[in-house]
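TA notes. Do not distribute before section.
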Amino acid sequence: MPRTRVRLRHNAASMPHNRATLPAALPLFPLGTVLFPGGWLPLQIFEVRYLDMVQRCHERGEPFGVVTLTEGHEVQQPARDGSPGFAPEVFSDIGTLAHIETLERPQPGLLVIGCRGGQRFRLQRREKLKHGLWMGDAEPLPADPPMAIPDDLDSLRELLLDLGRQLHAQHPDAFRHPLEGEHWQDAGWVANRWCDFLPEPNEVKQRLLTLDNPLLRLELVGDLVDKLPRA
């Protein structure tokens, strides 16, 4: 694979959290994005159902679960048929814990937070509370085992590192992970960071998230990178 520049979307990332336990009742945040372990997720919180949830999670040092919407909107919408209540929200069973690292209150009724992706989980049960917040019973999924990047895929690491240097020089906050470290030799971490950037539909990214084999994920990422427009 030749080393060259590619045009990608910005979505910063860093090292994943590895937590072995989950809250007994996990608050859920259905979003129109896929969060990968180690990924960086900035959010502006203004809906009442999430303001209280985020505040509690921040105070307790607990994560919430990010799950990807397959139907519905991030902000609650009225029912389409005019009946009381809200339009349905359907989301994936497999998601990622979001650990709050930064929180600001620029004005009343608004929280601006930055979250880091942690452990993957699988929902066993879900329930929507009266005020609209989703809660779930979830089991943790295993973290990627450390796995060296094979020689034939090392160009993916080099290309991503070049991209990180470019973004860091142009927008220091756009690439939120160190440009040096052992994680750059890890197949799962490099695959996940590519998944943060790749301009693929959520359906594709969700399939990559569900893979337990980090080397297979990196190989599939390589196929997608090969199809990117070159600049």
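Switch to the second chain here.
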Amino acid sequence: MVRLFAVAWALLMLGLSTAKAQDGYAEMLRYLTTSSIGGNALAGASGAIAVNLAAGDSNLQSNAAALAIGPLANVQIEQHQRISALSASVPDAMVADISGNALSGARGLISINQASGVGNREANAIAVAVSLAQQGIEEQTSSTWLAGLGAQTNGAAGGRSQANPSSSPRSASVAGTALRGAEGVVQLNQIAGMGNTAGNRLLITVDLPPR
């Protein structure tokens, strides 16, 4: 009886071990997309800082900046993004995070695009025109100089989570210590998901009197 009990217990433990191994293997096969900026990345950096970071499939990102100085200074930025025939599996989990002391104390023109997922579009644009024609400082709306983020998607995401994509865990976060003390123009697009469009646009015109 004791021997039979020992054999049964051994078989039970073997079954549990096999189940745990299978669970670990299944976890390893999960489709995870993680986009992370952490540690001391770009801490204290200065000048024109542009970051494009993506995890997943068919994500489009753009950072653009233009500066014009002269008697008749004029600047224009146009950005068009297009995704055709999108066919990708939906991730089981999508995470985008900025943590630690990343970009703390950074100064200047800071433009960040961060995406985790499928078929997302992000764009940052900064345009500055300094003219010697007239006095005064004027800030114009983006509609006068940028024809929007032209985003078009053809096709659809597929895969294991297509039936209920909302069940896929998604997280986008910025830690309290990240970007602390940053100065200047800070643009941030952060996406965890599918088929999203995000854009930041800034135009400044400065008219100075002739010397």
